[in-house]
Design brief:
Layout lengths: L1 H23 L8 H17 L9 E8 L6 E2 L1 H14 L4 E10 L2 E11 L12 E13 L2 E9 L1 H7 L12
Helix pairs in contact: 2-3
Length: about 170
């Protein structure tokens, strides 16, 4: 009888442990991409199309883009100017998202950009194509983009356009 009670207690304990694992360890994780991916896709679409109308709906007016000196932007109006200027310099721009990670109120991604420098921009048009890759992290608050950290290596793009780096004068 004592063995039967011990067996029942062991079985009950085992069932209790299984129930705890099943109810706590098997919870589905939230799919943050459902809410954030459409915003990121609209942002990438603005870079490709040059159409900045409608960005007010997905960006906080105080948005800040941290990047190199030429592509940083304080505020949504400056971001719109940046996108429009880039689209003018590279009318056939394509942005491909190679990898996307979504968490609560954050996006991290790796992208590839291609385009041909046929329009006026910060430098005279060269007619040459570029392919560059970069990584960005975007922060969201209240369903809007508030901050972006964007990183890419500008040297390869300049080399693809035909520019060369020269050492400072006086260097050997």
């Amino acid at each position: 009888m004592k063995q039967l009670i011990q067996s029942i207690l062991k079985a009950g304990f085992l069932l209790l442990m299984i129930a705890i694992v099943m109810t706590t360890g098997c919870q589905p994780r939230p799919d943050y991409s459902k809410d954030l991916k459409p915003l990121v896709d609209k942002y990438n679409g603005a870079w490709e199309s040059g159409n900045v109308e409608g960005l007010d709906a997905i960006f906080d007016p105080k948005f800040v883009r941290h990047s190199d000196a030429a592509t940083s932007a304080q505020g949504l109006d400056n971001l719109k100017k940046l996108i429009t200027g880039f689209k003018t310099a590279y009318p056939d721009i394509k942005v491909v998202s190679n990898e996307e990670i979504y968490t609560e109120n954050r996006f991290a991604g790796r992208w590839t950009l291609t385009g041909t420098n046929t329009g006026p921009g910060g430098l005279p048009p060269t007619g040459k194509a570029i392919t560059i890759w970069g990584i960005n992290i975007i922060h969201f608050e209240n369903g809007k983009m508030v901050e972006e950290w964007d990183s890419f290596d500008n040297v390869p793009s300049m080399q693809q356009l035909g520019y060369a780096m020269t050492p400072p004068s006086g260097s050997k």
